[in-house]
UniProtKB/TrEMBL annotation:
Phylogenetic classification of the source organism: Eukaryota, Fungi, Dikarya, Basidiomycota, Ustilaginomycotina
Organism (species): Pseudozyma flocculosa
Listed PANTHER family: SHEWANELLA-LIKE PROTEIN PHOSPHATASE 1
Extent of the signal sequence: 1-25
Start and end residues of each Calcineurin-like phosphoesterase domain: 70-311
Database matches in SUPFAM superfamilies: Metallo-dependent phosphatases (SSF56300)
Protein known as: Calcineurin-like phosphoesterase domain-containing protein
Keywords: Signal
GO MF: hydrolase activity
InterPro entries: Calcineurin-like_PHP, Metallo-depent_PP-like
Record bears the keyword Mitochondrion: no
Amino acid sequence: MSILSRPRLLLLALLAVGLYHFAGPRISLFAPVELAQGDVGGGGGGGDHSTGSLGAAKALKDGRRTISKRTVAVADLHGDLEHALNVFRMASLVSSTSESWIAGHDTLVSTGDIVDRGDDTIKLYRLFRSLRMQSKQAGGEVRNLVGNHEVMNALGDWRYVTKGDIESFGGAAARRTAMSTQGWIGQEWLRDYNVTTTVPLLPPDHPGLPKGYTPPSASFVHGGITPAYAERGIDEINRIAKSLLRKGLDEERPSGWLPPDTTPEEQAVWSESGPLWYRGYATEDEPEACRIAEKATSALGVRHLVMGHTPHFDGFVMRCPSAEILLIDTGISRAYGGEQSALVIDFELVPLPSSKQDGDRGHGKQELWRETETLSALYRGRKPKVLKRLERDLWL
Ligand SMILES: *[C@@H]1O[C@H](CO)[C@@H](O)[C@H](O)[C@H]1NC(C)=O
């Protein structure tokens, strides 16, 4: 960071992205919107926060309790273990002195591109494997997604693989074996990773949830889910993309191009409008992006589309009236030198005391509840920043 100033780094990185994506849509940077600063319950100093607080907190006389959950998302880590750990510790997911999961019931989502540009492929996949197991034991969850770079490696496209990374495997042949159907990384991708996932912002089976209430959810993917793919549904997206991934991992001498037996729907999934590459939510102008996002969120039944893939080095980009679009790739890896960041979604369902229920005539036995969703950005060395607070009162 000393020789290259940040703007120059940014230019270089953009050039790299642009060159790589030479045939693709234009890349444009959006200035992050300045929003009111505010203290957030989590992150920052790693102090007190809602970690593991499932089902705890306030109770009313009638027995109703506050139900809350924290969902954390990280984007492109690109071969940088040190920065990944910085981010996990900043978000109080991992102990400051070890690699222990300390986030209880929380959910962590990684939107892929763990591999390439840096040397720490082995260490990062091992760390995620350990966190998946540890979090499960604690009642939490780590959801791993593949990005376009995972699939590129499966297909034998090694243009972004570093020398140090190849050495860490003990050579190119060993690296390829690890990333094949016979190897541990290839097998983990097929078994433990997906292309897209939908995360409920409260546990849908929590016994304290009022009857008939379905918690809102958020969609996560590396590139972006177009309305056309949203209508096909996440099971179809995952099925088609996994099948392509398997074909790549199965090839004995992968060429970097699609395997000969690739089907048209697999080809489409790997195209620029497929979920691993699509950049429309970053590049379209605001009204158009929001128009598309509205279609995709309603087809998927989610509040937000959370995506990596298109870096914005100064911070997250939040678009549309209710943060339907959240672009969270800030170039965490030293290969970019951007912000080390995590997105935190705190969701709370709080019973309101009956004194506040002055309009309750006509609601029968129903009770009034308040949903509060707080979207916060954690950036290393900066104060946590509240991006958006969404509130809704409901008779349940
Ligand atoms: C991947 O997604 C499918 C549904 O789309 C689901 O059935 C499967 O359990 C998921 N796999 C993992 C590892 O999360």
